[in-house]
Design goal:
Blueprint lengths: L2 H10 L7 E5 L3 H4 L8 H5 L8 E4 L1 H7 L8 E4 L1 E2 L12 E2 L3 H6 L4 E6 L6 H18 L3 E5 L9 H13 L4 E4 L5 H6 L5 E4 L6 H13 L4 E4 L1 H4 L4 H14 L3 H30 L1
Parallel strand pairs: 1-2, 1-10, 2-3, 3-6, 6-7, 7-8, 8-9, 9-10
Antiparallel strand pairs: 4-5
Helix pairs in contact: 9-11, 9-12, 11-12
The structure holds ribose-5-phosphate.
The site of ribose-5-phosphate (R5P) has 13 residues, from β10 and α10.
Length: 278
């Protein structure tokens, strides 16, 4: 890796512990206004300072994040299909490398759909993006998207991650599964996990803990943070596992403590507002 590439990469995976907490808010690019992400600015703002990096599209970046923010950007540059369209795997590169540079992206993200109808096209997209990224020193995160018909097991996810790494991805995002170490061991670049659908907070923390214990370098988590009752408390608890080696129980305790203090803060603010009005 040259200097620029290394520098950008170290903004995504922290060099001191080789871990990362990436906050994913890119769901709208195919899902539209996802629950609790209807107003991205409102969702992102309180969480920004707790995220090591932010994964999103250029549209949400420009409209919903202040340019003075210092949080590294992972720019999703693939798209072109929606949940109501013909086939979700039919993606192309929708944002140019020049635009990514103008937006000061630290990393580019693109989905690959291994085993799908458009596998070839999405793998070609990845190869092209890696070539462009190498030219300008921007790392590429390959997102191993899983179609409904694919089984999320170590064999399939291991295959998808390995293919992504072989094509030059610098970092791979996948899903946690049984025998996850096989996925990590077969992939020569760092692997991070998506949170997936909203779970109970403790379950999501267990997922995080299991992934980290089995070799994941961190999380690229969205819904399990911002769809939580207490998103700030949740991201803090996830950080405690990823960066401070907390176990599930102590991270959940932290979540509950932070949720309580957040609720009393809100109540105090409401009381104060009512007193002023009266
Ligand atoms: C898919 O929409 C994106 O790649 C998400 O960034 C990814 O799935 C992570 O978000 P979540 O934790 O909500 O699954």
């Amino acid at each position: 890796m040259d200097w620029g590439m290394k520098n950008r990469f170290s903004r995504i995976i922290r060099p001191e512990n080789e871990r990362c907490v990436m906050l994913a808010v890119d769901h709208g690019y195919f899902l539209g206004p996802t629950e609790k992400l209807e107003n991205p600015r409102e969702t992102i703002q309180p969480l920004l300072k707790y995220a090591d990096s932010l994964m999103l599209t250029r549209g949400v970046l420009r409209t919903s994040v202040i340019p003075e923010s210092n949080t590294p950007i992972v720019l999703r540059v693939s798209g072109g299909s929606s949940i109501v369209g013909e086939d979700l795997s039919k993606e192309t590169i929708v944002t140019s490398i020049e635009e990514a540079l103008r937006l000061n992206a630290s990393c580019l993200a693109l989905s690959i759909f291994v085993g799908s109808k458009y596998e070839f096209q999405t793998l070609k997209n990845l190869s092209r993006l890696v070539n462009e990224g190498e030219k300008y020193g921007i790392p590429v995160l390959a997102v191993t998207a899983v179609g409904k018909e694919m089984t999320r097991d170590a064999r399939y996810l291991g295959l998808a991650c390995r293919v992504a790494a072989e094509l030059g991805a610098h970092l791979v995002k996948t899903y946690y599964c049984e025998d996850f170490t096989k996925v990590v061991d077969g992939c020569p670049v760092p692997v991070i996990i998506a949170g997936g659908k909203k779970l109970e907070e403790k379950e999501a923390l267990k997922l995080t803990f299991d992934a980290i214990s089995n070799g994941a370098s961190g999380v690229d988590m969205g819904r399990n943070i911002w769809q939580s009752e207490n998103p700030v408390a949740m991201i803090k608890a996830v950080r405690a596992i990823v960066h401070d080696n907390h176990d599930v129980e102590s991270a959940f305790q932290l979540y509950e403590e932070n949720s309580r203090s957040n609720t009393s803060l809100k109540t105090a603010r409401k009381k104060k507002a009512t007193t002023i009005q009266n």
